[in-house]
Amino acid sequence: MMCSACRARRDWLLINHGRNVWVRCRCGNQWLEPEIDRADFDALVGGPHGTTYPSVEAGLAALGFDGVFVGIYME
Ligand SMILES: [Zn+2]
Question: What is the 22 CA–ligand 1 centroid distance (Å)?
C-alpha cells in the first residue's frame, strides 16, 4: 500500500467502519482499502483494544493522529 498523494507508506490512520477499512494519510488523503479486512485491522492496531469513537472527527481529535497504525472503530 502507498498513499497515492504523497507516496507515504506509514503514519496512517486506519478507520474501521462496518465491513470497510479506510486509510487516512497525514497529508489528508483518504481512501478505501479493500485489501484490509476486519481481522487485518485488528492485527494492525493491536487487537480488540481499539477504541470506538462516534465519528472519525471525534477519533482524530481524541487521538491527535499521532501514531503509526492507530485505529478507529466506527460502528
Ligand atoms: Zn499521503
Answer: 13
- Most distant CA pair in the chain: distance in Å? 30
Q: What does the pLDDT read at residue 75?
A: 60
- In this structure, the number of other CB atoms found within 10 A of the CB of residue 35 comes to 8
20 alpha carbon – ligand 1 mean position (Å): 19
Q: Of 2, 1, 36, 4, nearest to 19 (Cα)? A: 36
Domain range annotation of the chain: 12-74
Question: Which residues fall within 8 angstroms of residue 31, CB to CB, at 6 or more apart?
Answer: 4, 22, 23
* pLDDT tens track for 29-75: 989 988 887 778 777 776 555 667 777 777 777 766 654 456 666 66
- Find, among 51, 55, 44, 34, the residue nearest to 10 by Cα: 44
